[in-house]
Amino acid sequence: MGIGRNIRLIRTARGLNLSQLAEKTDLSASYLSTVENDRRQPSLKAVNTIASVLAVPPSALLWDESMSQAESDGPAGLISVLHRILREMHSLQERGLGGDDEGTEVKTSAEAQASR
User: Fold this and answer.
1) Could you give the angle at the alpha carbon of 30 between the alpha carbons of 88 and 42, nearest 5°?
2) What is the domain partition of the chain in residue ranges?
3) 67 close to 2: Cβ distance less than 8 angstroms
4) Are 107 and 15 in contact (CB under 8 A)?
5) Assigned CATH topology for domain 3-99
6) Residues with Cβ < 8 Å from 38, sequence gap 6 or more?
7) Are 51 and 43 in contact, with CB atoms under 8 Å apart?
């Protein structure tokens, strides 16, 4: 499926834990967990809500073909996919299509761990 992995990748890049995403989306943490673990497919409404909170286009969550290749490339491949998603987000924000700018700064892994 891939949607869950994409959500987790972007959520953690934003420095959000599952409870914080649940609060911001008004979806339960248990629901989000089942989605992230690919045990449940989210509705289109949920995909749009999650994408809006994460300030990414819904297509970034649905993007699966690159994830397959990225997994076989290991961590460097996943980082490459994340960079592509961030470039797309930046492009949308420059055109005024990426939602509000608040909370769109991506933290480094050290910053994310320090904030936990």
Assistant:
1) 45
2) 3-99
3) yes
4) yes
5) 434 Repressor (Amino-terminal Domain) (1.10.260)
6) 1, 2, 3, 4, 5
7) no
For 18, the token pair is: 């599952």
As a whole number of angstroms, the distance between CA 6 and CA 12 comes to 10
Interhelix angle 29-36/18-25, nearest 10 degrees: 120
pLDDT digits (tens, 9 = 90+) for 57-112: 988 888 766 556 666 677 777 777 777 767 766 665 666 654 433 333 333 444 44
Question: Taking the chain, what is the end-to-end CA distance rounded to the nearest angstrom?
Answer: 28
Both tokens of 14, joined, read 């934003």
Q: Which two tokens stand for residue 63?
A: 């993007």
Q: Rounded to an integer, what distance in angstroms lies between the CA atom of residue 17 and that of residue 15?
A: 7
Residues 15, 112: contact at Cβ < 8 Å?
yes
